[in-house]
Amino acid sequence: MAFHPPAVADAKAQKALDAAVDVPAGPANVRVTRSVKRRKIAEGLLGAEVITEAEYGNHETFQARCTADATGGVAGEEEPAWFAPALAAALDANIAGIKADIAGIKSNIEGIKANLVNINARQSNMVAIGQSDPLAPLIDGAGNVDPNFPATLGALNTIMTGPALTASLTFYGQEAEGSDEDRRTQFKKFIGIRLYQSESMGGDSYSPKRQIEEYFFVAGGIRNAWGAACSWLLVFKEDLM
Fold first, then answer.
1. Cα separation of 62 and 4, whole Å?
2. In contact, 138 and 172? CB cutoff 8 Å
3. Burial of 196 (0-12, 13-18, 19+ CB in 10 A)
4. How many other CB atoms are found less than 10 A from the CB of residue 128?
5. pLDDT digits (tens, 9 = 90+) for 139-166
6. Residue 69 has what DSSP assignment?
7. Can you give the pTM of this predicted structure?
8. What are phi and psi of 106, to 5 degrees?
């Protein structure tokens, strides 16, 4: 009996499937191996939203038919009454799992993007010296900017009060500490401002120890973002294989 691999609507996807895996008429064990590989490629195309869930389901069904034929189970077009509902239920569960995995990957990619945006913002804020110098806003994991984020260094130094500082720290998931000035210092360090620059008009001197701490703060953010990016790229690669 002839086994014909299912087709997909997207011409480029169809070409990629045919070029990557040819499913021969026989022997049966080779056909099963090739149908599995073809289904995995289709899974990756589904994750990339190139083919539809129905088209991916056709590849699942084709793999099941090839496997059943090779193992002496259900073969050809004569499936029993229970086969189609059982296969449909299994496909629904698999597709739901794939959707959840893709949603998780997308969420983590957004988190990585937020880390990279914040690294750039902190690097920009490190050079803020004058009270009128603009500050680059940071974003949270969902890509949102604190609506109360100060526009300039002067606004942060003079306009932001204790409640506003507490609200901004909380917005970014930071626990507010100490007095109003402690929270102002905490917020400055969090957004990347080099403290000696904002204190140069009067206040505590800038010690080498503080400078080292600030450099390590920024370097730690870069390291964490890079590590997260590498980890999730590996996960994404494994999901497509």
1. 8
2. yes
3. middle
4. 23
5. 987 889 999 999 999 999 888 888 999 9
6. H
7. 0.43
8. -65, -40
